[in-house]
Amino acid sequence: VRALLLLTPLVMAGVFALGLIDSSALSLLPVFGLHLGMAEQESVLLVTFFVAGAILMQMPLGWLSDRVDRHHVLKICAVSSTGAAIALPVTIGTDWAMWISLFILGGAISGLYTVSLAIVGDRYTGGELARAVIAIAMVFAVGSTLGPLVSGGAMELWDPYGLNVITIAAMCPVLAFAVFWPQRIA
After folding, report:
1. pLDDT computed for residue 8 by the predictor
2. Distance between CA 88 and CA 99 in Å, rounded?
3. Secondary structure letter of residue 92 according to DSSP
4. In Å, how far are 16, 26, 44, 49, 103 from 52, measured between CA atoms?
5. 8 Å CB contact between 176 and 168
6. Contact, 169 vs 151, CB < 8 A?
7. Are 58 and 51 in contact (CB under 8 A)?
8. Which residues are CB-neighbours of 180 under 8 A, at least 6 positions away?
9. Does the pLDDT value for residue 166 go beyond 90?
10. Distance (Å, rounded) from C-alpha 104 to C-alpha 25?
11. Is the pLDDT at 5 greater than 70, yes or no?
């Protein structure tokens, strides 16, 4: 796992961020909405748009990653998800902009996982591929386990924007690796 972390830091940072953000969003977005004064139905729509983006963006991102360098698609996902996370608190109160931010965040962050698996599949074969996929699953599981705990604690400290702070913080290393790490070893 350590060798894979060092060899593919962008992939691993993206998978960790997905686990953390996805589990946090699924469990805490309705609470986030309620704390903003939204009605229950509107709060549930936050999760709906996040998940809709995660589902509907996989086909276009997969299509794109088959036609251009997959590392460029990872960079697009990193920039898009970070931008959507930063835009989210600004868009609160403007429903259509908030829904778009959540849709993009869900789609781009999930795209990190999909494209990361494709990169690992391109790079490894046989037993190495199995070990790489297990390492990815482990990193995802750690992020998923920590997500609600860390995000819930952050929401206690800065209600309700702590969830957004954790989302942005999780994306910062991904964005840094996407922009500054040499592509050949990402």
Report:
1. 80
2. 9
3. T
4. 21, 12, 12, 5, 6
5. no
6. no
7. no
8. none
9. yes
10. 13
11. no
Q: Which two tokens stand for residue 44?
A: 């549930």
Please report, as a single letter, which amino acid is at residue 155: M
Mind listing the pLDDT tens digit for each residue in 82-128?
999 999 999 988 889 999 999 999 999 999 999 989 988 888 889 88
Tokens of 180: 């500054």
Residue 186 has pLDDT above 50, yes or no: no
pLDDT band for 81, please (50, 70, 90 cuts). very high
Candidates 153, 51, 151; CA nearest to 109 is 51
What is the percent of the chain with per-residue pLDDT over 90, rounded to a whole number? 71
Cα angle 79-82-85, degrees, rounded to a multiple of 5: 145
Q: Which residues contact 58 (CB under 8 A, 6 or more apart)?
A: 107, 110, 111, 114
DSSP state, 36? Answer: T
Phi, psi of 96 (to 5 degrees): -60, -40
Q: How far apart are CA 92 and CA 43, in angstroms?
A: 12
